[in-house]
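tool=predict chain=A
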Amino acid sequence: MTDTPETVRTSKKRNACDGASEIPGGAALGHPRVWLEIDEKGYVDCGYCDRRFILMGGPADVAADIAGDAS
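tool=predict ok
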């Protein structure tokens, strides 16, 4: 089992998290739905489940940095 928080790459600056996106049955098994706003850092962490939302192409998007280095 890994202790690393889940990361989600997203194109939206405002995202909802209920901690149950991958759980059949939905939010009843997660946490209350919260809306999170990505700021100038390029990411935001959920205060309940520690899931990190990373803005694609933003300053915290490591995948974009790696793809840019490959070209």
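The CA atoms of residues 31 and 48 lie 7 Å apart. The mean pLDDT is 82.
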